[in-house]
Every structure is written in C-alpha cells, then in structure tokens.
Specification:
With about 120 residues, the protein is an all-beta fold. The chain is built from no helices and eleven strands. The protein is about 0% helix and about 55% strand. The strands form two sheets. Strands 2, 4, 5, 6, 9, 10 and 11 form a seven-stranded mixed beta sheet that branches. Strands 1-3-8-7 form a four-stranded antiparallel beta sheet, with no helix packed on it.
C-alpha cells in the first residue's frame, strides 16, 4: 500500500508564500505522474499542477507564474511552492500519484489565505 504524506499547509496573508511537501512511501519513479489537486468548500476537486515521470510539468491556468512544482528523487518527495497567494487559493490541497493500475491520494492539507 502506497502512502503519501503531505505537510506545509497553514494560514497566510494574501501575497504570501507557502511550500507544500508530499513524501511517498516508495520511489516516485514507480508512478507515471504525481501532482497536487485542491478542493475548496462547495467546489469540485481540481488539478493544480502535475509532473510526469519524464519531468514534464503542467499547471492550472489560475496558478501559472505563481506556483512551482518540483521533486527530490532521493527523498521520494514532491513540492509545491506557492507564491503570491490569493484568497481564492484557499482550499484543501491533496497530493496525488498515478501508477499503471492505481491512483493514490494523500490525506490533504489545509491552505487558508486571508485577505
């Protein structure tokens, strides 16, 4: 069973920064892709950013230029650096990993941006 452990959420003022981390219990190269999703109250879960095993990155239009997804292969960890945060970024952020057969989710970490 794969575990994804997230950390780094919290409360920040608009314009501030946070960095989320997601540590996987096995090598991240075993996944086709890893990324971050978020879900705000009353809204559907949406993709924020994803990185493929080959290193290609995709971002939601709403976060392009502000968020950066990176990975540390040695630590089996991906990161989401979030800058210039806005109140509309407030959500629970979930780490996601996809293998050939399965999809895994972390427990979620709350990000709250105050205006």
């Amino acid at each position: 069973q794969v575990q994804l452990v997230e950390s780094g959420g919290g409360l920040v003022q608009a314009g501030g920064s946070l960095r989320l981390s997601c540590a996987a219990s096995r090598t991240i190269f075993s996944f086709n892709a890893m990324g971050w999703y978020r879900q705000a109250p009353g809204k559907q879960r949406e993709l924020v950013a994803v990185i493929t095993s080959g290193g290609n990155r995709n971002y939601a239009d709403s976060v392009k230029g502000r968020f950066t997804l990176s990975r540390d292969n040695a630590k089996n960890t991906i990161y989401l650096q979030m800058n210039s945060l806005k109140p509309e970024d407030t959500a629970v952020y979930y780490c996601n990993a996809e293998s050939v057969k399965f999809e895994y989710w972390g427990q979620g970490t709350q990000v709250t941006v105050s205006s």
